Amino acid sequence: MKITNNEYNKMLKAASPKTELHKTLPKAFIFGGLICVIGEAFLHLYMNYGASKETAAMLTSITLIGLAAILTGFKVYDKLAKHAGAGTIVPITGFANAVVAPALEFKTEGFILGVGAKMFVIAGPVIVYGIAASVLYGLIYYIMGTVVA
Amino acid sequence: MNYLWAFLVGGGLCLIGQLLIDLTKLSPARILVAYVVAGVALGGMGLYTPLVEFAGAGATVPLTGFGYLLADGVQKAVAERGLLGIFTGGFTAAAAGIAAVVMFALIVATLFKRGDKMT
Predict the structure, then answer these.
(1) B54-103 confidence digits (pLDDT tens)
(2) Considering only CA atoms, which of B69, B29, B59 is closest in space to residue A95?
(3) Which of B2, B31, B105 sits opposite A103 (nearest CB)?
């Protein structure tokens, strides 16, 4: 049977579950917002102990990464993500989950090519394009600084 | 007030992500990459700093905040070390986060059972 792309897309649309924006959007908003509120609480905690705003923000990221890693280990984070969608993907905890989940999942393939390699399945591209963008931006920033000065 | 803005801005950034997933079928990996690159761009243009000052963790916890951190790091590194800073700034700024996530992943992978199903 030969089908065109257009026909295929129509079939795909009919077969795939309907996305219910009125359900997914509020959930993403609330879960994502709550994770940020937890982050804000840690931010204040660390600043109360005398950390600068920048240091406190970094400590907060490390704390959230640690918490997400443990929740991933207990299979709680992925259950949460089923409901929260982008609310649990977009925060730094989602990044941590994207590293820890495949690391654990591919434990059976050993600690070198399993855990060590597979933990970067999603984090790898994020780091690659994040760093590339930062180098590109650095270049522009450097040139602009030299031209103006 | 701090907490309210953190909730609204952080929630808003996640809502945009959900819209992208539902309407464009972008995979989570693509969302994460897009958010980090967007954060670098917004940070570079100086648009993200006001949001960080305004919403605190609501702006730094979403992955755009990670991109902002990279752009901010490059700016500081170029100011300090010139040309070399272009290459050192990003990784220097990201060092704590990447080292933490790698270490935690190793610990969890060592201590926890894989479990039959990973959803």
Answers:
(1) 999 999 999 999 999 999 999 999 999 999 999 999 999 999 999 999 99
(2) B29
(3) B105
CA distance B12 to B9: 5
B54 has a chain A CB within 8 A of its CB: no
Phi, psi of B62, rounded to the nearest 5 degrees:
-60, 155
A56 lies within 8 A of chain B by CB: no
Dmax (CA) for chain B in angstroms is 51
pTM listed for this prediction: 0.91
Mutate one of A54, A137, A140, A148 to test the B interface: name it (highest B CB count within 10 A): A137
Model ipTM over 0.90? yes
Contacting residues for A40 by C-beta, under 8 A, at least 6 apart: B2, B3, B6, B56, B57, B58
Angle at B13 between CA B43 and CA B97, to 5 degrees: 60
Residue B82 sits at the chain A interface (C-beta within 8 Å): yes
